[in-house]
Amino acid sequence: MRPILLLLPMLLAACGPAPQEAAAPSAAAPASRLDYPGKLGIPVRLDMLPAAEGGRAGPIAGAWRGEVAFDGGSTARCGIDRGGLAELVPGSSHEVRLICASAVQLSGDGRRGFRVLEDGRPVASGVVLP
């Protein structure tokens, strides 16, 4: 029995240290959302066109509603949740939320842009934030 006890540490040392388990790969960043049900706030960066470039003559304030054409073909009638902002002035950029009456499906090819239209002409553009 004694010779086995003497050999056991030498056998363990000869085998080397136990292999360390590979670290689990870090979780990938969550995929950006592509679909938004109606009346759910869609986080966006909105860039108002300056009046000199065909944008609105005045700011967006109050209960504004307009057509929003998303890249990939989806169009919806949306309002803008300005958060604490009183108005959105032509030529300015803001992070706001679009509140669309119907569901919005973004293009599966990664495009996240959109245009805000009034009477068929663009008055703002932007990008849906991840």
- What's the rounded overall pLDDT mean? 83
CATH superfamily: Translation factors
Just give the CATH class. Mainly Beta
Number of domains: 1
Features:
130 residues, mainly beta, six-stranded antiparallel barrel, 1 helix, globular
Describe this protein's structure.
With about 130 residues, the protein is mainly β. It is built from 1 helix and 10 strands, in the order H-E-E-E-E-E-E-E-E-E-E. The strands form 3 sheets. A 6-stranded antiparallel barrel has the order 2-7-5-4-9-10. Strand 9 (about 115-120) and strand 10 form a beta hairpin. The longest helix is centred in the first third of the chain and has 14 residues, at about 1-15. The mean pLDDT is about 85.
Compact overview of the structure:
By secondary structure, the protein is mainly β. Helices cover 11% and strands 39% of the residues. It has a single domain (35-128), classed as Beta Barrel (Elongation Factor Tu (Ef-tu), domain 3).
Task: Please write out the topology.
Elements: H1 2-15, E1 35-36, E2 41-48, E3 60-61, E4 65-70, E5 75-81, E6 87-88, E7 93-100, E8 104-105, E9 113-118, E10 121-128
Antiparallel strand pairs: 1-8, 2-7, 2-10, 3-6, 4-5, 4-9, 5-7, 9-10
